[in-house]
Amino acid sequence: MNTQTSLVRVPMVFPVMQVYESVKTHDMRILKKYAVEKDIYTAEEIDAVEDEYKKYIAMCIAHPRLNFPISKKVDDLWHTHLLFTQDYHKMCQEQAGHFIHHRPKILDDEAGLKTAFSDTLEYYTRAFGTPDKMYWDEVVCKSANCASWDVQM
């Protein structure tokens, strides 16, 4: 089942930059420490990955009806955040007002994911400028493994 809706047809619920400024304030120090200690990220890259993750979450909040596939590099931090269930729930409630669900790619067809990932990059570019290929490299992301999914809308 393809759940992607065109960016052109769905208005933002909230301006993405306003959401991003709020999401940026969420303290992720303990999560980042864990990710570095578990060798998921290096100490040199964790702050940048955190910023990319928060941009992604802001996009999900601004467009809750869209399925945004995510890059592996950023998705690994999302997976890590999900391990911290109370903190993840708190962030979702404070920032979105509801839980932001994680959706594995197995639930979508490959063609739909490629289109949806192109939309993710297009929307990212409109909101934040050109994505850094270190975190949003198309080679890594062609088989994007997860997406946001909001069953509230």
Question: What do these coordinates show?
Answer:
By secondary structure, the protein is mainly α. Helices cover 55% and strands 7% of the residues. It has eight helices and three strands. It has helices spanning 16-23, 29-37, 46-62, 72-83, 85-95, 110-128, 133-136, 138-141, and strands spanning 69-70, 101-104, 146-149. It has a three-stranded antiparallel β-sheet with strand order 1-3-2. Helix 1 (16-23) crosses helix 3 (46-62) and helix 3 (46-62) packs across helix 4. It is globular. The model is unreliable at 1-10 and 139-145 (pLDDT under 50).
Strand order within the widest sheet?
A: 1-3-2
Note the beta-strand portion: 5-15%
Report the span from N to C terminus: 17 Å
Low-confidence stretches: 1-10, 139-145
β-strand number:
3
Task: Name the descriptors.
about 150 residues, mainly alpha, three-stranded antiparallel sheet, 3 strands, about 55% helix, disordered N terminus
